[in-house]
Amino acid sequence: MSALGLIAALAMTAAVADPTSVPTSVSTPASAPTPMADGQTEVCKTIQVTGTRFPERQCRTKAEWAAMQAAARDFVNKQTTGACTGLNCH
């Protein structure tokens, strides 16, 4: 048996032997807003990343989420119509 096969077999045995180590849920719900020192509110969201089955948890301020959404909207508008409505058009 190869070393990789042996490691895989041991990992599977450990997972079966200890059912508490197996996660019950793949994605975590977005948490409640967290107040920050500068008065802004941080919001965490679970994002499904293309190319992987594992979601990614990202925490940003409300202003940062709004800026990301505006940038994405401007990018789509520019790609589909050739026109850009935001401030960061190149």
Q: Would you mind describing this structure in some detail?
A:
The chain is of the alpha+beta class and 90 residues long. The chain has helices spanning 3-17, 62-81; strands at 34-35, 41-47, 56-61. It is built from two helices and three strands, in the order αβββα. The protein has a three-stranded antiparallel sheet with strand order 1-2-3. The longest helix has 20 residues, at 62-81. 0% of the residues are buried.
Radius of gyration: 21 Å
In this structure, how is the largest beta sheet organized?
3 strands, antiparallel
Shape annotation? flat
Count of DSSP strands: 3
The end-to-end span amounts to 57 Å
User: What is the beta-strand fraction?
Assistant: 15-25%
Order of helices and strands: HEEEH
Number of helices: 2
